[in-house]
């Protein structure tokens, strides 16, 4: 049960990953994130994320590969939501892929209840990442 979307960004992967690496910046490029309380983007770090709609959720960073990817997890009753962020780049071009996967006994239920909303808004999140990433590159020139 995986939802996945991709965007091409006119910026090097290092510049895009810099937007990931500072959790306080997430609401700047992710219109679905209202606030984040995560001290740093490192494997094992824990904190919370406040979506634009819905309650604050506890999150845990499960994996970080600098300039390449990171994964966070949140839990719901009898369900785990895993959010993946992957970058593949060549020079000044980067492909960003964001995905969400539901697992556990009630994954089917939460996929049905909130999956469609995530599928609908994930392209907007990626568009924000593209906009802010490309603006930063243009500003640095």
Lay out the secondary structure:
Blueprint: E1 2-9, H1 13-21, H2 26-29, E2 33-37, E3 46-51, E4 57-65, E5 69-76, E6 79-90, E7 93-103, H3 107-140
Antiparallel strand pairs: 1-7, 2-3, 3-4, 4-5, 5-6, 6-7
Structural class call reads alpha+beta
The chain-level mean pLDDT equals: 93
Number of helical regions = 3
The N- to C-terminal Cα distance equals 41 Å
* Overall radius of gyration: 15 Å
Count the beta strands. Answer: 7
Biggest beta sheet attributes: 7 strands, antiparallel
H and E string: EHHEEEEEEH
pLDDT < 50 stretches: none
Outline: globular
User: How helix-rich are the residues, as a percent range?
Assistant: 25-40%
What strand order characterises the main sheet? 1-7-6-5-4-3-2
Describe this structure as you would to a colleague.
- The chain has helices at residues 13-21, 26-29, 107-140, and strands at residues 2-9, 33-37, 46-51, 57-65, 69-76, 79-90, 93-103.
- Strands 1-7-6-5-4-3-2 form a seven-stranded antiparallel beta sheet.
- The chain is globular and about 45 Å long.
- A hairpin with a 2-residue loop joins strand 5 (69-76) and strand 6.
- The model has no long low-confidence stretch (mean pLDDT 93).
- It contains three helices and seven strands.
- It is an alpha+beta fold and 141 residues long.
- Helices cover 33% and strands 42% of the residues.
